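task queued by scheduler; priority normal; single chain, no ligands, no partner chains; default sampling; output format set to structure tokens
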Amino acid sequence: FPWLAFTQAGVLQALLVSLRALAASLWLVWLAFTTPVQQIAILMGRLPGLDLLAEVMLLVHRQLLLLLKTALAMQEAQAARLGYRDTQSSLRSLGSLSANLLPRALSRAQRMEVGLQARNLDGGPLPCPELVKSSPIFLAALAGTDALLLAWGLS
């Protein structure tokens, strides 16, 4: 590739961009693992224009958890019937699990849609519950940790 060239400054810039992306990704993972989804959705619901996104986020989160629970139950049932005793039966069981999981997920989504319509939810904003108050010491420690991580990621 004659149009592709590597210079020391370009490699350094690529390394810095990669480290910043890694730091931002790690911060998001840390936020996701330390903050309940409901609290993130409550905060998003209070910001203008993000209330619909918060509702969709909660619905997707719930559907993913139910899908995981269904997949684990199906896998456990297949294992009880010796569906994973060798490579051939494992592949057949995995294919069967994959083929049966999508219709179940779609059926569950349709039932949820009917339930939401029965409750007369037309897509308007849902009421936001009150947040649990945190101690000032915890908030200061959290802000300090965030500032240190941000400074490390930007340096």
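post-processing summary
- The radius of gyration is 23 Å.
- The chain is about 75% helix and 0% strand.
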